[in-house]
Amino acid sequence: MSEQEEELENDPSVVKDYKDLEKVVQNKVEDAFYKGELRLNGEKLWKKSRMVKVGDTLDLLIGEDKEAETETVMRVLLKKVLEENGK
């Protein structure tokens, strides 16, 4: 287990069954954006250029029950934000 994984495992704000999605491909995120399946801090994400900061939550819609009016989301809590050039 890496130091980062260990740190997150001991963090009380991290949900049980947390999974590190650092390896999620950019194309999958882009596809979700164009399908309207991304929410930033509870609001639908309309612009890809929207700035994010540590502490923001990004929700990816992964299921919807229209009858029960509920959505199932995968929530990402931003712990670290890199500069635009990736540093």
Please, could you describe this protein's structure?
This protein has about 90 residues and is of the alpha+beta class. The chain has one domain. Helix content is about 20%, strand content about 25%. The protein contains two helices and four strands, in the order ααββββ. It has helices at about 5-10, 25-35, and strands at about 40, 45, 55-65, 70-75. It has a four-stranded antiparallel sheet. A hairpin with a 4-residue loop joins β3 and β4. It is globular, with a radius of gyration of 14 Å. The mean pLDDT is about 80.
Give the gist of this structure.
With 87 residues, the protein is α+β, with helices and mostly antiparallel strands. It contains two helices and four strands; from the N terminus they run H-H-E-E-E-E.
Strands of the largest sheet, in order across it?
2-1-3-4
Count of distinct structural domains: 1
Q: State the secondary-structure class.
A: alpha+beta
Low-confidence stretches: none
InterPro entries: MTRES1_C
Pfam families: MTRES1_C (PF25818)
Protein name: (raccoon dog) hypothetical protein
GO molecular function: RNA binding
Question: Top keywords for this entry?
Answer:
87 residues, 18% helix, MTRES1_C, RNA binding, (raccoon dog) hypothetical protein
Could you outline the blueprint of secondary structure elements for this entry?
Blueprint: H1 3-9, H2 26-34, E1 38-40, E2 43-44, E3 57-65, E4 70-77
Antiparallel strand pairs: 1-2, 1-3, 3-4
